[in-house]
């Protein structure tokens, strides 16, 4: 097969993957804790990385989610650093209160519940919601399978406590 036909076939395969997975990828990034706008930008960056590496990628869904998770982590670290710099310049009383929460249905409720989890538990839940097994999550995130299962167990326990209103479901006053 001539080289230009192979490239054309590869591009067609990427386009098909992109169309099928861009919306689920955005949802995955939202489950990780991003806003919808952040998730759209991060998903596009992950898809761009996939396109650039397309011939070498064996598992595109896992690849794009790994790239997106890393991009969100970098983005959050940057925002945290900028926020800390702003707080140190203005003092804690100089910042406006956070935005208000409005009920937008089940999806928003799920996002609210996930936001209660520590980062590692939320990450494992996002991968799980997206259809990955604990063994796959461990391989893709570089954790031991037992660690992933532990995070998943603790996340489920915390979410169950929140849903049933049991003591210990919330930290702090």
From TrEMBL:
Superkingdom per UniProt: Bacteria
Swiss-Prot/TrEMBL keywords: DNA-binding, Sigma factor, Transcription, Transcription regulation
Any one Pfam family match given in the protein's UniProt record, by short name: Sigma70_r4_2
All residue ranges annotated as the RNA polymerase sigma factor 70 region 4 type domain in the record: 108-159
Signal peptide: none
Keyword Transcription recorded: yes
InterPro entries: RNA_pol_sigma-70-like, RNA_pol_sigma70_r4_t2, RNA_pol_sigma_r2, RNA_pol_sigma_r3/r4-like, WH-like_DNA-bd_sf
Transcription among keywords: yes
Family membership: Belongs to the sigma-70 factor family. ECF subfamily.
Protein name as it appears in the record: RNA polymerase sigma factor
Lineage summary: Bacteria, Bacillati, Actinomycetota, Actinomycetes, Streptosporangiales
């Amino acid at each position: 097969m001539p080289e230009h036909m192979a490239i054309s076939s590869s591009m067609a395969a990427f386009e098909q993957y992109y169309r099928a997975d861009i919306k689920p990828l955005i949802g995955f990034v939202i489950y990780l804790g991003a806003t919808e706008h952040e998730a759209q930008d991060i998903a596009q960056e992950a898809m761009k990385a996939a396109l650039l590496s397309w011939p070498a990628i064996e598992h595109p869904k896992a690849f794009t989610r790994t790239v997106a998770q890393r991009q969100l982590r970098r983005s959050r670290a940057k925002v945290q650093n900028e926020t800390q710099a702003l707080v140190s310049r203005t003092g804690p009383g100089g910042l406006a209160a956070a935005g208000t929460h409005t009920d937008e249905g089940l999806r928003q409720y799920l996002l609210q519940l996930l936001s209660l989890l520590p980062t590692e538990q939320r990450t494992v839940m996002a991968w799980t919601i997206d259809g990955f097994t604990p063994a796959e999550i461990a391989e893709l995130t570089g954790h031991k399978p037992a660690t992933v299962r532990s995070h998943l167990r603790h996340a489920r326990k915390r979410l169950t406590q929140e849903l049933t209103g049991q003591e210990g479901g919330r930290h702090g006053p």
